[in-house]
């Protein structure tokens, strides 16, 4: 199949618009119309991973971390990033990364950790705002159904578990066609008064272009009165981290043993325990220290993440337990998640998990 068939599907689950500003998710090497027959999934993309793809006949590597974060000005093999990209290009292997956009969706990286820990009723820990817009358009009464349906078909009007949501207000509009106009209703030089409906719909901001194009195509007017504005509502299924509850609260020491077993951990760095049992659990794959206050506000008893520095552990302030399980360890199940996502959609496409442990950190036990 073509690369764009796979990547377009992945981006319906984790749209590129949801990645952080510093990120470089998406197709890094290759052309969307290139044909591919076998994919290799990994957490990181390194020279060793490219060698594995070559050995296994894979022509696309789908990794969580992008091999390129910053612009490359030269390709002279002076570091592992340049060598990896050069090797992929020479061997006609496409590179695709699905990083913070997969971090930032319900059902993504942090949700996978929550599933492994069997947390119930888990949700996004810190939902994002300014990702929703509202479109307002004025439509003659006879064309309301067509325009509204065009908006729904383009992706507008979905709120949580509901779709085809809109608010409609009746009124009338006035206009006078001037020289050069080609009015669908009315006569040149004469003011017209038309019974109209104001339609209001909410939509994810990345869909704005296709929604406006569909609306304009269905609208009868030559000049359409509409406006789109960003709204403050948080998108509850997009954001950082996850929060959920254990079925049965347990002592902190018992939970640590449970955490170590469920996530296959070598070591856990943590703050001191309290007498309180662990019931509510906050998690964030990767470097999640920025979410500590959100974890506290959510009522979490423990916050599981990675990449904590020494002085940052003091920020727990006995309000919560911080558990640093390691960056790779917190994201290791992302590979399994991607395999599940791709196989569910493309049952006849060959997808392999890497057999290479790309964790650069080793433990002497």
Automatic annotation (TrEMBL):
Family annotation (Gene3D superfamilies): 3.30.70.120, NIF3 (NGG1p interacting factor 3)-like
InterPro entries in the cross-refs: DUF34/NIF3, DUF34/NIF3_bac, DUF34/NIF3_sf, N-reg_PII/ATP_PRibTrfase_C
Record keywords: Metal-binding
Keyword Nucleotidyltransferase recorded: no
Pfam families (UniProt xref): DUF34_NIF3
Protein's UniProt keywords contain Metal-binding: yes
Family of this protein: Belongs to the GTP cyclohydrolase I type 2/NIF3 family.
UniProt-recorded name of the protein: GTP cyclohydrolase 1 type 2 homolog
Organism: Sphingobacterium bovistauri
């Amino acid at each position: 199949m073509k690369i764009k068939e796979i990547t377009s599907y992945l981006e319906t689950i984790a749209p590129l618009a949801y990645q952080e500003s510093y990120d470089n998710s998406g197709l890094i090497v290759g052309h969307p119309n290139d044909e591919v027959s076998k994919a290799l999934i990994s957490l990181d993309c390194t020279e060793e991973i490219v060698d594995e793809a070559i050995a296994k006949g894979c022509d696309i590597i789908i990794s969580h971390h992008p091999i390129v974060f910053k612009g490359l000005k030269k390709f002279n093999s002076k570091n592992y990033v340049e060598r990896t990209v050069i090797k992929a290009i020479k061997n006609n292997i496409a590179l695709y990364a699905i990083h913070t956009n997969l971090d930032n969706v319900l059902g993504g990286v942090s949700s996978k950790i929550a599933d492994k820990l069997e947390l119930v009723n888990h949700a996004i820990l810190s939902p994002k705002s300014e990702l929703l817009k509202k479109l307002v358009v004025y439509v003659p009464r006879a064309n309301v159904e067509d325009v509204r349906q065009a908006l729904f078909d383009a992706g507008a009007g979905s709120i949580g578990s509901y779709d085809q949501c809109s608010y409609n207000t009746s009124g009338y509009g006035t206009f006078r066609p001037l020289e050069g106009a080609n009015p669908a209703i009315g006569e040149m030089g004469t003011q017209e008064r038309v019974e109209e409906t104001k339609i209001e719909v909410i939509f994810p901001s990345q869909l704005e272009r296709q929604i406006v194009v569909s609306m304009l195509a269905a609208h009868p007017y030559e000049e359409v009165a509409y406006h789109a504005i960003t709204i403050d509502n948080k998108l509850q299924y997009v954001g950082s981290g996850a929060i959920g509850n254990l079925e049965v609260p347990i002592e902190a020491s018992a939970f640590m043993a449970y955490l170590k077993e469920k996530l296959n951990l070598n070591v856990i760095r943590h703050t001191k325990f309290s007498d309180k049992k662990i019931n509510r659990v906050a998690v964030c794959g990767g470097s999640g220290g920025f979410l500590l206050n959100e974890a506290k506000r959510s009522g979490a008893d423990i916050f599981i993440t990675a990449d904590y520095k020494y002085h940052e552990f003091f920020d727990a302030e006995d309000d919560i337990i911080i558990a640093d399980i390691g960056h790779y360890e917190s994201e290791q199940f992302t590979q399994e998640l991607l395999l599940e996502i791709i196989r569910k959609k493309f049952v006849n496409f060959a997808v392999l998990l890497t057999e290479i442990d790309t964790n650069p950190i080793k433990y002497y036990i």
